[in-house]
């Protein structure tokens, strides 16, 4: 299995509080991604990074920010959590190239009450 | 990126071949077909990908029609552990790995 660790794996937080999720990789892959998955749906891209300090928005970026100060770490922050952000969050990594596969972490289940 | 259409769910008997169809009628010439699966809310797992030729690896075979408007993922001898949601995705080649995910096919392998 690719070396991807998400932390925490589960979190319950209150509306309005800040939350940071961490993705750590040991594969030295250049690209890192944050997705969210809601019941009965596929994954939706929140933000991605194509290098240290280089990030860009995905299709559902409102309410989220990211940071990548080291190759191995990609942080997702909910500045002020809302109930609509209750979801399972997945981190993924990949290397540049035309046809590479992406490797996914095991997910973080976040509940905003 | 082109959209894909998959059946919502399918059943297959254990030990038989599972054939999962996918329609991607608007696929363009530089878009690849990828298959991932997700077992019981774990992180998605890559299975296979192809451009126009049929592909086979240790997990599955991918059959792409000549016009590339549809494809079939084949699990040759399905086991109970193959019960999962299977996602068919098309994406352009290139360094940005943005994937547009549909709802996938829930495959249930029955004993």
Helical residue percent band of chain A: under 10%
Discrete helix count of chain B: 0
- Global Rg of chain A: 13 Å
> In which order are the strands of the major sheet of chain B placed?
1-9-8-3-4
Quantity of strands of chain A, as a count = 11
The count of strands of chain B amounts to 9
State the helix count of chain A. 0
Shape of chain B: globular
Sheet with the most strands of chain A? 7 strands, mixed
Q: What is the chains' assembly state?
A: heterodimer
Are there runs of chain A of 5+ residues with pLDDT below 50, and where?
none
Structure description:
The complex is a heterodimer of chains A (113) and B (111). Chain A has 113 residues and is mostly beta strands. Chain A is 0% helix and 56% strand. Chain A contains no helices and eleven strands. In chain A, strands 2, 4, 5, 6, 9, 10 and 11 form a seven-stranded mixed beta sheet that branches. A four-stranded antiparallel beta sheet of chain A has the order 1-3-8-7, with no helix packed on it. The radius of gyration of chain A is 13 Å and the shape is globular. The mean pLDDT of chain A is 92. Chain B has 111 residues and is mostly beta strands. In chain B, 0% of the residues lie in helices and 47% in strands. Chain B has strands at 9-13, 18-23, 31-38, 45-50, 55-56, 61-64, 70-75, 84-92, 105-110. In chain B, the strands form two sheets. Chain B has a five-stranded mixed beta sheet, with no helix packed on it. In chain B, a hairpin with a 6-residue loop joins strand 3 and strand 4 (45-50). Chain B starts with 8 loop residues before the first strand and ends with a strand. The model of chain B has no long low-confidence stretch (mean pLDDT 91). Classes of the chains: A mainly beta (113), B mainly beta (111).
Which terms would index this structure?
heterodimer, A: about 110 residues, mainly beta, 7-stranded mixed beta sheet, 4-stranded antiparallel beta sheet, about 0% helix, B: about 110 residues, 5-stranded mixed beta sheet, about 45% strand
């Amino acid at each position: 299995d690719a070396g991807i660790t998400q932390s925490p794996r589960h979190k319950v937080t209150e509306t309005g509080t800040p939350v940071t999720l961490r993705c750590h990789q040991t594969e030295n892959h250049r690209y890192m991604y944050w997705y969210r998955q809601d019941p009965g749906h596929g994954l939706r891209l929140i933000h991605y990074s194509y290098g240290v300090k280089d990030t860009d928005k995905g299709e559902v970026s409102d309410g989220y920010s990211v940071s990548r100060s080291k190759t191995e770490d990609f942080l997702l922050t909910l500045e002020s959590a809302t109930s609509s952000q209750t979801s399972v969050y997945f981190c993924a990594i990949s290397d540049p190239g035309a046809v590479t596969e992406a490797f996914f972490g095991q997910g973080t289940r976040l509940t905003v009450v | 990126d082109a959209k894909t259409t998959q059946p919502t769910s399918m059943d297959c008997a254990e030990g038989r071949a599972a054939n999962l169809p996918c329609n991607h009628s608007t696929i363009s010439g530089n878009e690849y077909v990828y298959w991932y699966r997700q077992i019981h809310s774990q992180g998605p797992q890559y299975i296979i990908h192809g451009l126009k030729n049929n592909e086979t690896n240790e997990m599955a075979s991918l059959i792409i029609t000549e016009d590339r408007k549809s494809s079939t993922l084949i699990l040759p001898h399905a086991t109970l552990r193959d019960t999962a949601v299977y996602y068919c995705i098309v994406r352009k080649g290139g360094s940005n790995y943005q994937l547009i995910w549909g709802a996938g096919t829930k495959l249930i392998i029955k004993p």
